[in-house]
Structures are given as C-alpha cells and as structure tokens.
Write a structure and sequence with these properties.
It is a single chain. This protein is an alpha+beta fold and 150 residues long. The protein has helices spanning 16-23, 29-32, 122-148; strands at 4-12, 40-41, 54-61, 64-76, 80-87, 92-102, 105-115. It has a seven-stranded antiparallel sheet. β4 (64-76) and β5 (80-87) form a beta hairpin. The longest helix has 27 residues, at 122-148. The protein is globular.
Length: 150
C-alpha cells in the first residue's frame, strides 16, 4: 500500500543556525506536540543526535497509549535530518526535516510519509481519523514555532 504524504513549509524569521539548534534538541519536541497527546520522551536526556540515534517516547492517540521508537537515519546539520519509526502506532512513519536560509530567514519543510494500520481498511481509517490527526499535529506545531520564534 502506498503511504500518505503530508508536506508543510514554515517560515521562521530567525537564522538557520538558531532554528536548527532548536530542532537538534529532542526535548524541544515536547513544546511542539499538542498536550492531549501526552507526549513523553522516555530516553535519557540530553540525546546526542546523529545517524543511528534511537529515541523512545510514550504518546496517546485517541486516548490509547503507545510506545514509540524512532531512529535518526539521516543527520546533516544544519540542512536536514530524517527520523523513521521502528516501533509505534503507524505501519510507516518517515519524517524528513529540511532547512534552508534566505536572507536571514529560515524556511523549514516537514515531509512525512505515513501509513496507518488497518490493512484493507487503512484508506478509510486514514480518511476518518489518522490523516486529520496528523494534519492537526502539524498545524499545532506551526503555531507553536511562530510563538517560540516570535
């Protein structure tokens, strides 16, 4: 089955080095995740980000708790990093974070390829629940980034 793709671009009126430094600290994910997800990093902090770094989390989706493990599979500061789910609520989760600076302003693009569980019912599950939730999470993330970097 082909994954769904969500791509968003956020303009942050700060230099690339400052924005990438923020994203290089895994604990800042807590600031970018909606509170109702009860997102918690369970890996000991601080985390040294590099290819092969494993990060464990706990998250609630629709009130159901999940353990989630991701791997940093690409680490190219300050331009890009990629995390992918090894274990968690999705069949596939591959998140590319790309950064570029233009005249002191950072353009950050998130590209997420995801696939919900549900096998033959996956398109329906995605249309009714998962796709909307992923979109809401990234809308919240964009609002928070605008506040943090105001």
């Amino acid at each position: 089955m082909k994954p769904h793709i969500l791509e968003t671009t956020t303009i942050i009126k700060r230099p690339l080095s400052e924005v990438f430094d923020f994203f290089s600290k895994a604990e800042n994910l807590n600031l970018l995740t909606p509170p109702e997800l009860e997102f918690t990093i369970t890996t000991h902090l601080p985390i040294n980000m590099k290819p092969g770094t494993l990060i464990d989390y706990r998250i609630k989706l629709n009130g159901i708790p999940f353990n989630w493990k991701t791997e940093i599979c690409v680490w190219n500061p300050p331009h890009q990093f990629v995390d992918q789910q090894l274990k968690g609520p999705y069949v596939r989760w591959h998140h590319t974070h790309s950064f570029k600076e233009v005249n002191g302003i950072t353009e950050m693009t998130d590209r997420v390829e995801f696939l919900s569980p549900g096998w033959i019912l996956e398109p329906l599950i995605n249309a009714l629940f998962v796709g909307k939730k992923v979109k809401q999470i990234f809308e919240y993330r964009e609002e928070q980034l605008k506040k943090i970097f105001a």
